Amino acid sequence: MKTVIIYYSKHHGNTEKLIQAIAATNDVTLIDCTKVRTIELSQYDRIGFASGIYYHSFAKPLLKCAAENLPQGKAVFFIATCGAPRKNYFTAIRRIAQDKHCIELGTYRCRGFDTFGPFRLIGGIAKGHPTEKEIADAVAFYNALGT
Known about the structure:
The chain is α/β, with parallel strands linked by helices. The chain contains 4 helices and 6 strands; from the N terminus they run E-H-E-E-E-H-E-H-E-H. Helix 1 (14-25) links the parallel strand 1 and strand 2. The termini are close together.
């Protein structure tokens, strides 16, 4: 099953740590959405979107990439890293996938080191995240998606 993960990972590389671990043990294509404008995704059976969280949502460049490139009816999954855990981080990316009649396979979220805005003044939050366990859990999440 051909799988691609399109990602946005800035600042501390939290999200990239997760997807690199997934790709290290699986045949997965990784695409940084900041390095390409148009992506041909019809050849993939599963499409993942991974991002750090900015203002309670996936990064705007990733959302734009998904809206412009996600084909109709694909199987999708979502991965996020965030300074503070909340449940509503997947709303915008889910809406894009739902509008394209995609099938959601699942979501994975863990903490990630965050120095955005006022957090910088105190040295950041979620220091040491993602942990080795959180990275291993991301790989387990991906592997549980099945083939």
